[in-house]
Amino acid sequence: MSEHGSVDPKQPGAFEKSGLNSIRRTGRLINIVKRPFAWEGAHSALKACLIGTSRVGWAIVGITIAVVFAQNITAHVVNIESISVPKLLADSGYTSDVASQCLRDALTRFAKETGSSMQGPNLALPYELPKITVPKVEISLDTATALVRNLLRVGNTRNISGEFVLQGEILWLRLRIDGQEIFTGKTTGFDPTNLDELLNTAAPNIIQEIRPYLIASATYKDDPGRALEIAEGIIARLPASDVNVQWSYVLKGKYYLDRHQPDLAESYLRKAIDLNSENTFAHYSLGVALENEGKLSHAIAEYRRATEIQESFALAHNNLGALLEKQQNIDTALVEYRLAIAWDPRYAAAYSNLGTALKKQGHMPEAIAEYRRAIEINPTFNTAHYNLGVTFRDQGENEEAITEFQRALENKSDYLPAHIGLANTLLDLKRTDEALKEYQLIIAIDPNNEIARRNIEYLSTHAIDANSK
Predict the structure, then answer these.
(1) What is the pLDDT of residue 461?
(2) For the chain, which residues make up each domain, given as ranges?
(3) Which CATH class is domain 280-468?
């Protein structure tokens, strides 16, 4: 891409046209002063311009090479070299480049399936890497980069290589990272589906080596304790500068947040931020920990920081809105909820929270519309059903309220807020027998619920009095 106003040397006559333009620009001055040897002067000026342009061009090239060189030295890249394939496989269209691309697809897919907020590995195929030869030295930029990396021990580039080997009807796949074998597997025949499945099987082994945190993240849902062990192992064996270490501290923070130990979670999340102050999810998680500790102003600061680093972080916008709403800053909370929805139009909780904030401002129809939108996105979102039910009850639309409370209980039979809302609404309608049953269910779920207990005593007493008459 050329700069504005530059001359393209590949265009026929480009320099000549540029020269004519220069002469035309100076021609009027020449005619006025009638100086001799004007053409010779113009020629010298043109020559000087061309020399200057050439020097500027080489300067730009030099700067470009220097920038690419610096980026390559410090880059954290995983190079997937061409995967060697048998001739029969290549003849069928499954070439070495296709095999490399399919391996990258398998690795990218596995990284996404972990559900981690950590960015997956930066995977590069051979034809995507810059092929620049340093002038006069006649050495490729890749070679020069490798030499400097080895000398200074900087950067973190890994190389994946391997081959498919045909033995009779069996097709073997061997993969290596930096020359060390990391995976061996086999399949039968040349069916592309089987080949892709073999690469999918290899993916976790490779990710374990190049992005071990993603393995911990993938493990967390089913076995948090094992995930914690993996994270602690990463912290113990890798240097603090390794990206997997900061994310392992984030996982430890999540582990203790889930176990209602926000103070311990805070300590690990701060370690993650010390390692990388731009880790958005660490700031967000720290906000959650601080909120759970009751440090609301500090939590707000962390949520704000998360949105400053990543404007599209809908979770942080939503949580920030919720805390601002607690501080009665409803207008600003509305802004944050709407930002959350703008960045994630399928974020049901943000719609529900927006509805609650609108309701506090007395905008009932708008609030109901937002609750309905949340339910439309997620019909099993009990909070939205409950909020809609409460709104209907506040407006005296008790039958509609009962319907919403019951829908919430269909999704989760022990959802306490819906039982309370339903019991109170039934009591409003003087359907005492049904209300009594609901209050009894509340006590079964929450034996310490004093309001339910008093209402049971009241309804039971009045039922005795009614029967005695």
Answers:
(1) 82
(2) 14-74, 78-209, 280-468
(3) mainly alpha
